[in-house]
Amino acid sequence: MRSSTTNRQYRIFAAKPAEAPPPEGYPVIYLLDGNALFATTADAVRAQSRMQKKTGVSPAVVIGIGYPSDALFDPARYYDYTMPTPPDKLIKGPEGMPWPELGGVDAFTAFIRQDLKPEIERKFPIDCSRQSVAGHSLGGLFVLQTLFNHPEMFQNYVAGSPSIHWNKEFMTEAEQRFLSRITQGSEQADGMKLNLMITAGELEKHHPSRMVENASGLAERLSILAERGGRVEYCEFAGESHISVLPAFISRAVRFALVSAPEDKS
Questions:
Q1: Catalytic residue numbers?
Q2: What percentage of the chain reaches a pLDDT higher than 70?
Q3: How far apart are CA 185 and CA 173, in angstroms?
Q4: How confident is the model over 239-261, as a mean pLDDT?
Q5: Cα Rg, the chain, nearest whole Å
Q6: CA-closest candidate to residue 239, choices 230, 248, 250, 231
Q7: d(Cα 233, Cα 255) in Å, to the nearest integer?
C-alpha cells in the first residue's frame, strides 16, 4: 500500500482466522515492525485461540505494518515512529552515527487512519469495538503517542519496551495533556474505555535510557485509566533483554488484546 498523503510505500501482512467470524466481526491487532514480528504474532494468536476455553483468547485478524524490503527493522521506521525533534534534543545515535530521516509520526498516523484501517475493514469483517495496536521499542513509542494524541483510534494499546527517552520533554507534555483530558472526562465520553499494557525486559534496567524505570513509572501514572473502567497492566519479563524479550512480549500482548473471558487456572 501507499500512503495517500506522503506516497510512502508499506508492506502489509494479514492473517485471518480459519474460524467463521462472530456476528460482530473479528477483533483485530495492528502490529508495528511487521517484517520482524508478524509471523510470531500470527502464530501466537492461532495457537492460543485454538484453546479458547482455557486461554480466553479469541480468534482475530492480525495486521502487520511493514516495509517492502528484506530488513527485519527497516530504517524507514525511524521516520514513521518518531515525533519531530530538534537536533539539540536528539539522543546520540549508535556509535555516533547520524540517524535516518525522523519526525513523520503524524503522517504515519494519517496513513493508518485514512488508508490502512478502511482497507482492512473492507477486506475483513472487523469488530470496531475490539481494535488493538502493539509495538516494541520505537514501535512502543508510537503506541504511546497514539494513545496520548489519538486515543479514539484503538481500544487496546500495548507498548513493549517503549523508547520514552527518545524525546522525554515531548512525551511528558503529551502525557500531561492526555491526563488532563482524562481527569476532565473527555476521553471516556460515549462509554469509551481505554486499555493499556506496558512491558519491559528485566535486563533493560541496565540500559542508560532507564528503560524499565521509565516504563514502570508511566504505567503507574496512567493507572487512572483503570479508575475509569479501563485496564492498565505493567509486566517485566525476568531475565530478558531488549531483543530477547520479543517472544514473551508478543505472547502477553496477544492475551491482553484478545482475552474475552477469565483464564482457566486449573
A1: 137, 204, 242
A2: 93
A3: 19
A4: 93
A5: 18
A6: 248
A7: 12
Write the single-letter amino acid at 64. Answer: G
Write out pLDDT tens, residues 84-101.
Answer: 888 777 777 666 677 888
Rounded distance, CA 259 to CA 36, Å?
24
Residue 140 identity: G
Please say if the pLDDT value at position 14 is more than 90.
yes
Cα(225)–Cα(57) distance, integer angstroms: 23
Query: Model's pTM, two decimal places?
Result: 0.93
Q: What is the pLDDT of residues 166-200, one digit of tens each?
A: 988 999 999 999 999 888 865 544 456 899 999 99
At position 141, the amino acid (one-letter code) is L
Res 131 pLDDT > 90: yes
CA distance 41 to 38: 5
| Rounded Cα gap, residues 4 and 159, in angstroms | 27
SS3 sequence of the chain? CECCCCCCECEEEEECCCCCCCCCCEEEEEECCHHHHHHHHHHHHHHHHCCHHHHCECCCEEEEEECCCCCCCCCHHHHHHCCCCCHHHCCCCHHHCCCCCCCCHHHHHHHHHHHHHHHHHHHCCEEEEEEEEEEECHHHHHHHHHHHHCHHHCCEEEEECCCHHHHHHHHHHHHHHHHHHHHCCHHHHHHCCCEEEEEEEHHHHHCCCCHHHHHHHHHHHCCHHHHCCCCEEEEEECCCCCCCCHHHHHHHHHHHHHECCCCCCC
